[in-house]
């Protein structure tokens, strides 16, 4: 992966984060709402760094002359200057014994000399790769990251440090997931276990007394806490409304209204379930509002968290998925 590819990946990654946080509320399928400003800032920084990297790469010259190639070019420049001064390559015509003057009768000899020198010039250029041949070859090898290493110059100049590891391409996976798949919030598949998660003990002073409203809407987590740990049985005789998605049960004549609770992100989510009795089961993963009354446990010997609390439903209404699908 070269610098251009790295910058493109950063642009796509930053754009994907901004797409799910600024242009939509999709990020709520993966993290809690409190992470919104941090995600926006991170996406903006990554996008800006990617754009800066692209601009820098576009402004770079496509053909650069390595330092050792400039040194190899110097002798040829000296010979060219000498040739321009004397009319010959590398020596003075007046200091050469037996040299003919540039008269009319000597044009043939001078032509032969010029031809001989041009032949010698060509052979030297062929041996050295031409005045620009060595330069072009060195530049090409240096561009491939092999010039100095294989030509005996040593050091670290022969290694191309502008290329990143191939594993960096894995950064494209979340980009493809967001733009092509857009994974939904955790649902029934993540909550199919028949064992409810253990809940920490809660004292009776934690929950305030319930009002006299006809129907009391409450989170599933609060309903489970009151059912398991409220010694005053504050749920007795109260009609409550719970919101969640449908999860089937292995037991007959019941199903679960479920909500995922998370502390940070979807990776640490745990399912909170309430058994719904005396109501037909809607399709799996359907979001519903269930209204009903709590069924107290028949025995106080059942430890809290062993079985899901039960609710006798009086009304079940299908609803769209809430903007915030987690508790």
Highlighted features:
327 residues, alpha/beta, OB fold (Dihydrolipoamide Acetyltransferase, E2P), 3 domains, 8 helices, 6 strands
Q: Structural class given helices, strands, pairing?
A: alpha/beta
Q: How many domains would you count in the coordinates?
A: 3
The general outline is elongated
User: How large a portion of the residues is in β-strands, by DSSP E?
Assistant: 5-15%
- Cα Rg: 40 Å
CATH classification class of the largest domain: Mainly Beta
Q: CATH homologous superfamily of the largest domain? A: Bacterial OB-fold
Percentage of residues in helical conformation: 25-40%
The number of helices is 8
Distance between the termini: 41 Å
Spatially, the strands of the biggest sheet line up as 2-3-4-6-5
The CATH topology annotation of the largest domain reads as: OB fold (Dihydrolipoamide Acetyltransferase, E2P)
Mean pLDDT: 74
Task: Please report the total strand number as a whole number.
Answer: 6
Order of helices and strands: HHHHHHHEHEEEEE
Uncertain runs are: 86-158
**From the coordinates shown, what is the CATH architecture of the largest domain?**
Beta Barrel
> What's the story with the biggest beta sheet?
5 strands, mixed, barrel
